[in-house]
Amino acid sequence: MSARLEIDTGMEGFRFWPGALSASEQAGLLAEVLAAEAVAPFYRPVTPGGRPFSVRMTSLGPLGWVSDRGGYRYQATHPGTGEAWPPIPRLLLDLWRDLTGAEPPPDACLVNLYREGAKMGLHQDRDEAEMTAPVLSVSLGDAAMFRIGAAGGGPTKTFRLASGDVCALTGPARLARHGIDRVIAGSSTLVPGGGRINLTLRRAAPASQQT
Ligand code: MD6
Ligand code: FE
Questions:
Q1: C-alpha span between 100 and 59 (Å, rounded)
Q2: Do the bridges between strand 144-149 and strand 135-141 make them parallel or antiparallel, or are there none, so unpaired?
Q3: How many domains does the chain fold into?
Q4: 169 lines ligand 1 (CB under 6 A)
Q5: How far apart are CA 135 and CA 121, in angstroms?
Q6: Is 197's C-beta closer than 6 angstroms to any atom of ligand 1?
Q7: Fewer CB within 10 A of the end CB, N or C, for the chain?
Q8: Is the residue at 208 inside a domain?
């Protein structure tokens, strides 16, 4: 296990641990995600307005985030197969506990797959019942330019997220606006077929609810 050293982002509540996952941890986590893909295949959701995302998505855990004509929500089953989502890998649950210390543990892990040209517009993560719980993000594969700014608007900052980097939106940054401007194709060989995978751990159901 590599050291998990936090750096100062200059933004209160935006926490960043570059290189938190060792090469073997990254490879092990990727293998679990690719195995889960057999049960919960990546698919391209559409926005409530009907526009397809350029990012492919799936989820792990009791709940998964979905978007369709009906809006954004968390649900217990994959929208394509109707099956329950595969479990959240142990490494991620341990990472959540070690880095955030937050209780209860996460009950949803959104998995984003960025192939060539995919990006994600500025957004807020606000579909969770517990908006005081952090959102913890793990990056695998190609590096990406992550843009983040205050919830209310104003200037943004850009951070390069590389494979094995972990960051979190907590406290005053929990509702920060953020997105992925671009992925730097070919900057990593980790993901078969190229690209970037981002995993975000959340607490989607109320803390009082058993998961
Ligand atoms: C991504 N990340 O890195 C998109 N959300 O592909 C997110 O949308 C995100 O990095 C909440 C907290 C941290 C994040
Ligand atoms: Fe987000």
A1: 21
A2: unpaired
A3: 1
A4: yes
A5: 17
A6: no
A7: N
A8: no
Cβ contacts of residue 101 below 8 Å, gap of 6+?
none
Does residue 20 have its Cβ closer than 6 Å to ligand 1?
Answer: no
Question: CA–CA distance from 203 to each of 24, 55, 56, 142, 197 (Å)?
Answer: 27, 22, 21, 27, 20
Residue 4 lies in a domain: no
Span from the CA of 62 to the centroid of ligand 1 (angstroms): 19
Kindly state if the Cβ of 100 falls inside 6 Å of ligand 1.
no
The CATH number for 194's domain is 2.60.120.590
Q: With a threshold of 0.90, does the pTM exceed it?
A: yes
Tell me which residues have their CB within 5 A of the ion that is ligand 2. Answer: 125
Per-residue pLDDT of the chain in tens (211 residues, 90 and over written 9): 557 999 999 999 999 999 999 999 999 999 999 999 999 999 999 999 999 999 999 999 999 999 999 999 999 999 999 999 999 999 999 999 999 999 999 999 999 999 999 999 999 999 999 899 999 999 999 999 999 999 999 999 999 999 999 999 999 999 999 999 999 999 999 999 999 999 999 999 999 987 6
Domain extent for 31: 14-202
Closest ligand 1 atom, residue 55 Cα = 6
For the CA of 112, the nearest atom of ligand 1: 6
Specify the ligand 1 atom closest to the Cα of 114. Answer: 6
CA of 202 relative to ligand 2 center, distance in Å: 10
Could you give the CA distance from residue 139 to residue 152 in angstroms, rounded to a whole number? 26
Residue 116 lies in a domain: yes
